[in-house]
Amino acid sequence: MAAANPFSSEILTWETFGTATRELAATVHADGFRPDLVLAIARGGLFVAGALGYALGVKNLHVINVEFYTGVDERLDMPVVLPPVPEPVDLAGANVLVADDVADTGATLALVKEFCAGHVADVRCAVVYEKPRSTVKCEYAWRSTDQWIDFPWSAAPPVTAAGA
Description:
The protein is α/β, with parallel strands linked by helices. It has helices at 14-30, 44-56, 107-116; strands at residues 9-11, 37-42, 61-71, 74-82, 95-103, 122-130, 140-144, 148-150. The strands form two sheets. Strands 4-3-2-5-6-7 form a six-stranded mixed beta sheet. Strands 1-8 form a two-stranded parallel ribbon.
């Protein structure tokens, strides 16, 4: 069982996640943006990127692993890209849709957009949730909230922490 969260939180279920990503994809499509590839920010962005890839008919998915959060509202001083780092040549000239679960401070998205700069034709961000304090204003966000979000993939502790 997950530890009690001392912060007010919003709970996203798997069912609502399906609705959220479908609506997010519809917004991207309606805007006329046609990504050549979806760049997932691991780990939470993996789920979003997969769902958006299917909904938008984009089979080319890439992953960038960025570590920033270490716990509930606990983070490193700055985000760090972990290996393996994508090769910029693989993104060259592409319309890139960066996918993540949440734009909280915006630091992770800023790092990834900076990584893409100068290599891609266009880079836009799609997130399920965007917080008002985010320094990056995403082109596509399903909802805005200032609460902590309990995502279905991270609500329970790892099985290794549960003594399995």
